[in-house]
Amino acid sequence: MPSLLPRQLLSINVAQASPLTIEGRQIMTAIRKRAVSSLTEPHRIAVKPLGLEGDDQADMTVHGGLSKAVYAYPHEHYAFWQTVRAQASAQAWGEAMPHGMLGENLTLTGLLEGDVHVGDILQFSDCSLAISEPRRPCYKFQAVMGFPHAVKMMAQSGYCGFYLTVRQPGTIAAGESYELIPGPREVSIAELFKAKMHRHID
Length: 202
Known about the structure:
Elements: E1 8-14, E2 18-22, E3 25-29, E4 34-38, E5 44-48, E6 51-52, E7 70-74, H1 78-87, E8 106-109, E9 121-123, E10 128-134, H2 139-145, H3 150-157, E11 162-168, E12 170-173, E13 179-181, H4 189-196, H5 198-201
Parallel strand pairs: 7-8
Antiparallel strand pairs: 1-4, 1-8, 2-3, 5-6, 5-12, 7-11, 9-10, 9-13, 10-11
């Protein structure tokens, strides 16, 4: 079912690589994003071919390069993750997760995984980004979410978000609306994610 919310960018989130201890090992990661542009402080952030200004990409196999320069996540799914984290005692009931908690650069509304296809364009006022592929959750995502089976829950829900390649560099700010320009419309992000994650769904 398509999102009924307006197409708006709520937050821009970045992080520098820092150590995260997982099962006794220190891993360098930039998954712990924090807002640098929000609805209350809509600073303009540079969008470059390899990503956002101020954002590190510690593991280029999962986030980075031209095809995965920017990661976007639908805010519509936040209520789901807040509930399952509270059930797992990873956060308090009623506590709101900060934007960037899913490791995303762009927290947005109005666009779900079933609405977008590889090659679709998100046109902002000063830059354009193209849908490239779904996110594949890993052990670092599970560690940050703070409970077992987080990867399986993303696989089963299909709430994966999507990577973007930068078609036209420029600047971007929270509060902006965007237009979805259809591409070839051959495969949706939801379909592609399900095919890639089938072994986690059962």
